[in-house]
Automatic annotation (TrEMBL):
Pfam families recorded: HD (PF01966), HD_assoc_2 (PF19276)
Taxonomic lineage: Archaea, Methanobacteriati, Methanobacteriota, Stenosarchaea group, Halobacteria
Domain of life of the source: Archaea
InterPro entries: dGTPase-like (IPR050135), HD/PDEase_dom (IPR003607), HD_assoc_2 (IPR045509), HD_domain (IPR006674)
Protein name per the record: HD domain-containing protein
Residues covered by the HD/PDEase domain: 46-169
Organism listed in the record: Natribaculum luteum
Length: 408
């Protein structure tokens, strides 16, 4: 057995298959992948890694299994899946996942190929565990896959608390101990037991508060967009392929971006925190539906049109269109009066939090500070935005301004 001191869960005991998996290259690689990507440019202490998070998920999975009374090989499969659930992540975590998926057809939770060979596959087979069965659990399949990846998974319980701890914000605090204790199965569905509507609501509230404050902070979004654009240029130049990029860690990617002419300016901006500024910051009701639903190629074409209208190189324009607001946690299931009910149908908080998400949604157009006005004017025309109140004037007081005020 190995005991590791953790900043969130105190002492974590690692034993069995997890102990042997711990020092495999696939797991140790996670030390070089930041949990929150570029969020450290907003919160300097947010330097925790996927390795720490994986240990936390393993710890909570062990507690859940103890509560279920599950032992033996099934328990070992779940423990292995919990520790390995993030080994498919590329550099900077989710920041580049859509970019690499378009070229490989593989998201981070598709780890069948990774677990089937190499040291991880050897360790699993040595413990008489089928790598494909473990990979299925990572993907959320089957009864116990819900524990690793689902609406009430231990992954979510760890990252909310861990991200809040390392950023220093108080909003991600949840009673993960109670959440784990109250998990149960009803007809193979993972649910929270009777009397836990408020416990489930705490997950909703924590995520709803962490989204605008941490995960979708405007600076985090701008830096993520610059990183994504730089990495796309890297792939387009043929310097690396998407499969190779997926297996890099943060340090590998930074060095590669610095080393190629097509990406050096973007990498300099990230290194020096000389980020683009908001030329447009538009609410969802100001944006035509066709823009919101646009695919990647369409967004790139909009960027080129904006750049042409502003008489600038396309590298000076980044269009950032988030997905429509969603709340997967609202599908969590809770036992109420002996019946399984979805939280979205039971809790009056859900509609209020959905409204808050809707009001927080923003389309962003980013550019270097010295051309922000030109890019803002061009973007309004090209995208057909109803822009009143949506362009940002970064005044001394940090207030928003109307379009007329911005362009004075």
């Amino acid at each position: 057995m190995k005991i590791i001191k953790d900043s969130v869960h105190d002492h974590i005991e690692i034993d069995g298959v997890a102990r042997d998996l711990l020092d495999t290259p696939a797991v140790q690689r996670l030390r070089g992948i930041s949990q929150l990507g570029t969020v450290s440019l907003v919160y300097p202490s947010a330097n925790h890694t996927r390795f720490e998070h994986s240990l936390g998920v393993y710890h909570l999975a062990c507690e859940a299994l103890e509560g279920f009374g599950v032992e033996g090989r099934q328990a070992e499969r779940v423990r292995a899946a919990a520790l390995l659930h993030d080994v498919g992540h590329g550099p900077f975590s989710h920041n580049l996942e859509d970019l690499t998926y378009r070229r490989t057809g593989r998201y981070h939770d598709d780890v069948h190929a990774l677990l089937a060979s190499g040291q991880v596959g050897d360790v699993l087979c040595d413990h008489d565990l089928d790598p494909n069965a473990v990979a299925d659990l990572v993907a959320g399949e089957g009864r116990f896959g819900q524990v690793v990846s689902g609406e009430l998974d231990v992954d979510r319980m760890d990252y909310l608390v861990r991200d809040a701890h390392h950023t220093g914000v108080p909003y991600g605090t949840i009673d993960h101990g109670r959440l784990v204790r109250e998990l149960t199965f009803v007809d193979d569905e993972l649910v929270l037991g009777e009397g836990n509507v408020q416990t489930a609501e705490s997950l909703l509230v924590a995520r709803a508060l962490m989204n605008p404050t941490v995960y979708n902070h405007s600076v985090a979004r701008i830096s993520k967009a610059i990183l994504r654009r730089a990495s796309e240029r890297l792939l387009e130049s043929g310097a690396v392929d998407a499969a190779t990029l997926q297996r890099m860690d943060d340090h590998d990617l930074i060095v590669t971006l610095r080393s190629h002419e097509a990406t050096t300016e973007f990498s300099r901006r990230l290194d020096e925190r000389d980020l683009y500024k908001r030329a447009v910051w538009a609410e969802i009701d100001d944006v035509p539906g066709g823009i919101i639903e646009a695919d990647h190629d369409s967004i790139r074409e909009f960027e080129r049109e904006i750049a042409d209208a502003a008489e600038l190189d396309e590298a000076h324009v980044v269009l950032d269109v988030p997905d429509r607001p969603s709340m997967t946690e609202s599908t969590s299931r809770v036992v109420v009066n002996g019946e399984i009910r979805r939280l979205g149908h039971q809790s009056p908080l859900v509609d209020a939090l959905r409204a808050a998400q809707y009001s927080q949604w923003r389309l962003g157009v980013y550019s270097p500070a010295d051309v922000r006005e030109r890019v803002g004017r061009a973007a309004v025309d090209v995208l057909g935005l109803d822009i009143d109140g949506s362009l940002v004037s970064e005044t001394r007081d940090g207030l928003y301004a109307t379009l007329d005020q911005f362009l004075e």
